[in-house]
Design brief:
The protein has about 450 residues and is mostly helical. About 70% of the residues lie in helices and about 0% in strands. The chain is built from 16 helices and two strands. It is globular, with a radius of gyration of 22 Å.
């Protein structure tokens, strides 16, 4: 007896769509794999990288930082490829499954080869796989909803972000410990196993999902229609500002890790590894999501209407303050002191608050602003802002190096440069946000 065809539109119902648990479970495991691998990447490149002859060949800290942000940039550039495959040819489900296999192969390469060759192959495959599925997964969440249950969309995107940070928290604690005690092979293999599990969980939900068909020629026509071009142009202006936020934010995995190595990391009776400090971010996210939804946003909304773009603007200003804290830490380190890691934790509190204002808001805002046939493509344009921000940080770290191995922009000056850049961006964003006119597009219910 033939199996029933996949549903191609949401069923009119006020209930939670049945495929959501599979998507959220997949996201938790996939984010474990990505953030676990990325948490140890700078430490691996600067301390554990081997040459083809079996001898140690680590990178300098500046090179490791530059390569880290170059990889992150690539991982957030390939969403454009995933979006085109998804919206034009394969559909979201087939794109996610296919590129998840590429993703798993990248983890395998890192686990088996600790030379620059293994690093290059592994990170390239992970960038293609993880980047390609990013816009599809978040857009796939929105595709499960229609007009009768759209009121649940903000709550589910909150759960989606909760899953991301649960996976990030566990992996940020575990993989640095695995690297220190068992070496790179095991430390990179465990995230690979979780990515394999993520692929399996997603496959299990195939009969529960709404599978929105690819647009084919209609997708191309819609993208280049006046509405499509106008939407893309409007959002690209917003994303150009958001890119500067990511240039600051993603340094928690590079310059902040290197700074932590020079600090007193004794906290709560535990001596923490430098890379483990990143675990505080997902914990704070899990705490701040309900706090902001129930208390912070309603309180601000009583003072002035809190639109999505106003949330983003507030986040920009908070991130400026967040980057002034590590600047102060650098002043203390330069004076011969060894400040306690609790000062960097303060910076994480501020930057995480900025993330709630900016990142979660951008996810929902991007989906609602995108025409129905361009959901993955618009999500990929948002993710391209992450790529652009990391590319800028990578270029800065490359450009400031001197021939003798020094830096033209080090210590407190480095952090003040990025804080100043973010402040100028936040001021300019106010004028742009005032002129933006929002439009909302959601999937239609099935008849």
């Amino acid at each position: 007896m033939p199996r029933p065809a996949y549903r191609t539109a949401p069923v009119a119902s006020p209930a939670l769509p049945p495929g959501i648990p599979y998507i959220v479970g997949n996201e938790a495991a996939e984010r474990f794999s990505f953030y676990g691998m990325r948490a140890i990447l700078v430490v691996f490149m600067s301390h554990h990288l081997m040459g083809p002859d079996g001898a140690a060949r680590p990178m300098s800290e500046a090179d490791a930082t530059s390569y880290y942000h170059l990889f992150t940039s690539a991982a957030y550039f390939f969403p454009l490829l995933g979006a085109l495959l998804s919206d034009a040819l394969l559909g979201k489900y087939r794109t996610i499954v296919s590129l998840s296999i590429v993703y798993c192969l990248g983890h395998l390469a890192l686990a088996l080869d600790d030379t620059r060759l293994g690093l290059a192959i592994g990170l390239s495959l992970i960038a293609v796989g993880s980047g390609g599925i990013k816009p599809c997964v978040s857009a796939h969440v929105g595709d499960q909803f229609g007009a009768t249950n759209q009121h649940l969309l903000p709550r589910v995107f909150g759960w989606f972000y909760f899953a991301i940070n649960l996976g990030a928290f566990v992996s940020s604690l575990l993989t640095p410990w695995l690297l220190a005690h068992y070496g790179p092979g095991i430390a990179f293999a465990v995230p690979g196993v979780l990515m394999l599990a993520a692929t399996w969980v997603f496959w299990l939900g195939r009969r529960r999902f709404v599978h929105v068909p690819p647009g084919g020629r209609a997708f191309v026509r819609d993208v280049f229609s006046p509405t499509g071009l106008r939407t893309a142009a409007k959002l690209l202006v917003i994303y150009a500002f958001v890119a500067v936020f990511w240039a600051l934010y993603d340094q928690t995995g590079s310059t902040w890790v290197l700074q932590a190595a020079h600090m007193d990391r004794r906290f709560l009776g535990v001596d923490w590894f430098p890379a483990q400090i990143q675990a505080v971010n997902p914990v704070l996210i899990l705490l701040m999501i309900p706090l902001f939804s129930r208390l912070v946003y309603p309180a601000i909304d009583r003072v002035f209407p809190l639109t999505p773009l106003r949330k983003i603007g507030i986040g920009f200003f908070v991130s400026v303050v967040a980057f002034l804290v590590p600047a102060w830490i650098e002043l203390r380190i330069a004076a011969g002191a060894q400040p306690n890691i609790r000062w960097q934790l303060l910076a994480y509190v501020l930057l995480t608050a900025a993330e709630v204002f900016v990142s979660i808001t951008c996810l929902e805002f991007s989906y609602t602003q995108a025409p129905r046939t361009m959901k993955s493509l618009v999500m990929s344009l948002f993710l391209a802002s992450v790529a652009l921000g990391n590319l800028f940080t990578s270029w800065v770290n490359y450009a400031i190096q001197t021939p003798d191995g020094g830096s033209r922009l080090s210590g407190v000056a480095y952090y003040l440069f990025f804080a100043g850049l973010m402040f100028i961006t936040a001021i300019a964003f106010i004028a742009v946000a005032r002129r933006y006119r929002a439009e909302t597009h959601l999937q239609r219910d099935a008849p």
